[in-house]
Amino acid sequence: MYRDWTYWGKPVPGFGDPSARIVFVGLAPAAHGANRTGRMFTGDRSGDFLFAALHRAGLASQAKSVARDDGLTLTDVFIVATVRCAPPDNRPLPNEIVQCQRFLDREIALLPNRRVLVALGAIAWDATLRHFERGGHALPRPRPKFGHGATLAIANAPRLLGSFHVSQQNTQTGRLTPDMFDRLLAEAKREAGAGCAIVDGG
């Protein structure tokens, strides 16, 4: 299908608004999505779902993203990934997650206005918890568990929200619906403060 494309085929950096208050932590580049286009969630079905929702919420300039130069801009949102390269079978190995943690930590730290981190899936949730620990924050015991709508508030740290990943496995089976994700986005915007709100989606 994409034989005419020159694949990016390198580690994929995060992208978005450097002044973002909301940071999405994804899983990894999709083999024929970000690994092809060079931008997270760009050119695949997961991105179709995510950007449509961000557009409804007034956080993205358009509802679809197909290439790095397609004109998409994000407002008050930045997107990072737990793993930077497309993993085998779309499931990162533990050592890949460990090796990429320092890049995740640095990228989040470079966003000075971050107020809410949204972890897309359990792997991203765990990586974000490690980010807090590596930053010197003590986590509650027992360790907070991932779930859609799970939330964690730690003193002097951004609020953490959990969401099912926007993968086809979740969106096509109804495990994650547009209405569910719109409600979570509305909560993220409330937590982030008035500066990011345009209109609430859903």
Number of domains: 1
Can you write the helix and strand succession as a string?
A: EEHHEHEHEEHH
CATH topology title? Uracil-DNA Glycosylase, subunit E
Specify the helix fraction band.
25-40%
Number of helices, counting only DSSP H or I runs of 4 residues or more: 6
Structural class: alpha/beta
Gyration radius, to the nearest Å?
A: 16 Å
Unreliable residue runs? 194-202
Question: Can you tell me the CATH class?
Answer: Alpha Beta
Q: Give, in spatial order, the strands making up the sheet with the most strands.
A: 1-3-2-4-6-5
Instruction: Specify the CATH homologous superfamily.
Output: Uracil-DNA glycosylase-like domain
General form = globular
Rounded mean pLDDT is 93
Question: Would you kindly provide a brief summary of this structure?
Answer:
By secondary structure, the chain is α/β, with parallel strands linked by helices.
What does this structure look like?
The protein has 202 residues and is an alpha/beta fold. The chain has one domain (19-192): Uracil-DNA glycosylase-like domain (Uracil-DNA Glycosylase, subunit E, 3-Layer(aba) Sandwich), CATH 3.40.470.10. 32% of the residues lie in helices and 12% in strands. The chain has six helices and six strands. A six-stranded mixed β-sheet has the order 1-3-2-4-6-5, sandwiched between helices. The radius of gyration is 16 Å and the shape is globular. The protein starts with 14 loop residues before the first strand and ends in a 10-residue tail after the last helix. The model is unreliable at 194-202 (pLDDT under 50).
